[in-house]
Fold this sequence. Notes:
The chain is of the alpha+beta class and 183 residues long. It contains 6 helices and 8 strands. It has a single domain, classed as 3-Layer(aba) Sandwich (Aminopeptidase).
Amino acid sequence: MPEPESPQLETERLWLCAWSEADLEVARPIFTDADVMRYINGGRPLGDAEIHSFIARQMNHLRSRGFCLWKLLLKPERRFAGFCGLQPLELDGKSEVEIGWRLVKECWARGLATEAAHAALISAVNNARLKRVIAIAMPENRPSLRVMEKLEMRFELATRKAGFDVVVYSRSFAPQETADQTL
């Protein structure tokens, strides 16, 4: 079986790939599943224009910053599993870099979010020389909070984002430190 289109990162079970404008159809199910969106957007599914905007943003982040929320493909069948990675985020008037993930339901509770997040975090910290990364989640989203803790992120504060109560976890990296030394 051929390799996936331009994989950027690889883990034991996943390829983390760049998005393309042709990915709307493959991405639509994750953005329209109420269970997947429950803690993201109050359960509101996204329309095609919003999904296309998300994909375009990720393509732009990769070009301009060298990281994005990567499209996840499950090995070996190359099946779409979700997305994970880093992106810029404005939070409480501050510019931050957020790590985030979202998986299709069939991939829940298998450790894939942690596996992908670990690879994306190492790459972004080492290549973009990030000194700080945050993650946000609704307090009820226990699975995401567990992933944050596995990434050695610590609770920082509770706030509101897009009209929802969220908790912010963070992790800082010393200038000479690389993520693989500490993850």
